[in-house]
Design goal:
This protein is globular. It is α+β, with helices and mostly antiparallel strands. Helices cover 25% and strands 39% of the residues. A 5-stranded antiparallel β-sheet has the order 4-3-2-1-5, sandwiched between helices. A hairpin with a 4-residue loop joins β1 and β2.
Length: 79
């Protein structure tokens, strides 16, 4: 499976519920970190190999660390 087969955006969250991800392309993602009652939003452009590998793993090899979520769940976490 290649990135061309993916309908972006793709949404994931860590199983512990402390980070939510909106993956917009193979090299761009938004992360919402839950820190206590606060939410911190980061937008990352994957330029380095480890960042690109992280995005790849969130899309294809996420089952041990994360789960699929809906756009609605991501937006609720962001609010």
């Amino acid at each position: 499976m290649s990135f061309e087969d993916i309908n972006f955006p793709v949404y994931r969250k860590y199983k512990n519920g402390l980070s939510y991800f909106k993956i917009m392309s193979p090299v761009l993602f938004e992360e919402v970190q839950v820190i206590g009652s606060r939410r911190v939003v980061h937008v990352t452009e994957a330029k380095l190999f480890p960042e690109k590998t992280f995005v790849h793993d969130l899309i294809y090899k996420y089952s041990e660390m994360a789960e699929e979520i809906s756009a609605h769940e991501f937006e609720n976490a962001k609010a």
